[in-house]
Amino acid sequence: MKRIIKCIIFIIIFLIIIAILSKIFIPKNNTLEAGIGKRKQPASGILTEPENTIDVLVLGDSESYNSYIPLELWNQYGFTSYVCGTPAQRISNSYEYLKSAFNTQKPKIVILEANNLYTKNGVVRRIKEYIDKKIPAFEYHDRWKSLSKEDFYKSSEYTEIVNDKGYRYSNKVRIVKKSKRENFMQVNENAKNIPGYNKKILKEIKDYCDKNGAKLILYSSPAPANWSYDKHNGIEKCAKDSRIEYIDLNLKVDELQINWKEDSQEKRGEHLNYTGALKVTNYLGNYLKEHNELPDHRQDEKYNSWNEAYNNFQKEIEESKKASV
Amino acid sequence: MTYFSVIYLLIFLPVVALIYNILPQKHRWKLLLLASFTFFFSISKGLIVYAIGSTFLIHYIGIWLENVQEERNRVLKEAEKENKKKIRADYLKKQRRILTFGVLANVGVLLVVKYTGFFGENINSLLETMKVSFRLHIPKILMPIGISFYTLQAVSYIVDVYHEKIKADKNLARLSLYLTFFPQIMEGPICRYSETAMQLWEGNKITYESLKSGLLRISYGMIKKMIIADRLNKFIGEIYTHYGKYDGGIMVVGMVLYTLQLYMDFSGTMDMVIGTSEIFGVKLPENFKQPFFSKNISEFWTRWHITLGAFFRDYIFYPLSLSEPLKKLTTNARKKIGKYYGPLIASAIALFCVWFCNGLWHGAAWTFIFFGMYHFVLILSGKIFEPAVLWLSTKLHINREKAWYKGLQIIKTTLLVFIGELFFRATSVKAGFEMLGKMFTNFTLNSFKDGTILKLGMDLPDFIIIAIFTVIVFIISIMHEKDISIRKEISKKNIVIRWTFYYLIIFAIIIFGAYGLNYEVVQPMYANF
């Protein structure tokens, strides 16, 4: 009995210390200097956008932030969007981002890139995610290298506005292998099953959007490395059952004029580069504008910062082009 | 799932330990066997059939050998005295045939699985050099985890039954557990049947003391592996892959730090393995005994990967040295070149075989064979020059027992080990020589002055942390060398000191461990061998 009590006290002290360490190690701002990390920094900007200014919210893994360019849509149509995509984002993470975005925003449309519906989300990963969420000391432990005095007493407050609104620019060009790009969407009747847990979370996301008056749309960015007709059938069936709109751009590669010699970042065709993303963004912008009532804020002074952001984005592209020449 | 993964440490091991203690003692072995198969399957999937096949094979070979031995004893009992010698010889022949079959079948599978690609590629290169258009088709064969380790255990079992050191085990499950016990399946230690089989079968209760002691040993392993070895991984990878870009100064750092990485990785994993077994009341043999306090290369190999060295000593070196042809050679050589150098010729032949096998066992590449031959040359030359060194030190009135002399021997041995490990890690033998050459032809400190060294995957705080924890491990090693057990010493202290010590270890691993988003997951290095 005495030993059991000792063990309990030992664990309680451990939890107290780890809670204190979590407070110290958690980044105090959403900047790279403050230690938030490259994976999360672009998506974290959703929390610093002025309240109720985002019309479209985009979620998903790397396919999302490599294919959807919010500032292009601003320039062309005047509605605002933000990409909360992160590398290898699980559907459960997408749901977390959705809920935290809705704390300050009321987007009319939520778009989910469908690739992560096929990403396995096992019990172990979920436990790990839960621990990381509850005890940030694990995720941010490496910040011991850059701790400052402020980390010991300041609480966390995000202030950094992210210029590219979650999009991650890349001008890397790789010719996609013939074996990958040819016939990757061969028509067949098979439908790849979506894991049960992912389906359950998708339903929760749909319910959450309905409850908050937002429309949920699924889309698949062209990606020969990740996509197939089996997956298309699986998502289409699921979307139909759940009454969600689904746009599979892998079927519209010709219509979009995707050039696999110019528009991909990798030989396997995993992610689009800027030129590829521009084609997808144009199509999606057109689709969103045609099928939904989205406001045009371009003449609204409240949104002046978006014009500035667009100009900065263009400069960034020019500079990067010069650098690569 | 590997020993340092979240799933192993936070789910697999605690669940197995909990169920183990709830189960009645007589059923505990079943859980250990189930856990071992689950662990094996989680890594190698269907390749588990290799281990199961090996278990069946040695099980029946063992029984076969024992049946022959029993038959021999029965026949001998009834035989006339003058016939006994012949009967023994006949049965020995029969046993040898069975043993040869058993060893060849086990080692044969290992050879096919591990070396087909290597031999195939070399034959094809040779054909190309000879301008022969024919090429061998090289099939891709997947290698099950731990095959290099459990094959040696399987061989040791049947050889020990052959020598009648142990009785053949009629219990297939016990033999299977001996071969596949989950904490040791990935990297050993290479155990003998007599050391572990019965302990595993007994199902000793997990006590508070065994749990505490085991966990402390595990955490020491985590410090070595997660704080030091894994932190070095990116840095070492960069230097050895792109050695052409860097100067000799960087090569020296790369050589020293790779040896450190390998030691911390392998010995840290061994601490994890032995600590885990301790929790279940199973005492596994030690695989490391402060190797960097060795005064010569022979001694080093009695302190580094001890169970592998012991296997080669007992199952290759001694049988070869005591074989008829080598005994004859020794007798003849002794007459011609004296008592010291005479037996050395036979020893050299046996030693060559040991080190060729040792090198090849580590992997299917010329770098490993070179590594083996390097140690063969060092050990043999040590023996050849020993009389000369003795003579010289006597002439110069050098007391070889003095601390300074021993210190110099330790430094010399450590330098030789560094060079050996450089070739062990190098991408090719040629690359190894180029890296070594740069240390002499292109040695500068420019990379330190201009900060290049801090751009290869480790920054200054990384170097500082590695230095601090290496010093801590060094101090602990000195204490172990003096037979001081830190775990025992700590357990004597009051609760405040004890708990502070425990919390320091836990939080050192949490804060300074090289895990998470900024680091790649590094599998235990010897699991690939």
Distance between the termini of chain A: 73 Å
Low-confidence stretches of chain B: none
CATH architecture of chain A: 3-Layer(aba) Sandwich
Query: What is the rounded Rg of chain B?
Result: 25 Å
Biggest sheet of chain A, open or closed, and with what strands and sense? 5 strands, parallel
Order of helices and strands of chain A: HHEHHEHEHHHHEHEHHH
Shape of chain B: globular
Largest sheet of chain B: none
Structure characterization notes:
The complex is a heterodimer of chains A (325) and B (529). Chain A has 13 helices and five strands. In chain A, strands 2-1-3-4-5 form a five-stranded parallel beta sheet. The mean pLDDT of chain A is 93. Chain A is of the alpha/beta class. Chain A has one domain (38-127, 158-324): SGNH hydrolase (Rossmann fold). In chain A, helix 10 (229-241) links the parallel strand 4 (215-220) and strand 5 (245-248). Chain A has helices spanning 2-25, 41-44, 62-65, 70-77, 91-101, 123-134, 136-139, 178-181, 196-211, 229-241, 253-256, 274-291, 304-324, and strands at 56-59, 81-83, 109-113, 215-220, 245-248. In chain A, 44% of the residues lie in helices and 7% in strands. With 529 residues, chain B is an all-alpha fold. Chain B has three domains: 6-205, no CATH class; 206-288 and 426-529, no CATH class; 294-424, no CATH class. Helices cover 73% and strands 0% of the residues of chain B. Chain B is globular, with a radius of gyration of 25 Å. The mean pLDDT of chain B is 92. Classes of the chains: A alpha/beta (325), B mainly alpha (529). The A-B interface holds A 3, 10, 13-14, 17-18, 21, 37, 39, 124, 127-128, 137-139, 141-142, 144-145 and B 6-7, 10-11, 208, 459, 461, 499, 502-503, 506-507, 510-513, 515-518.
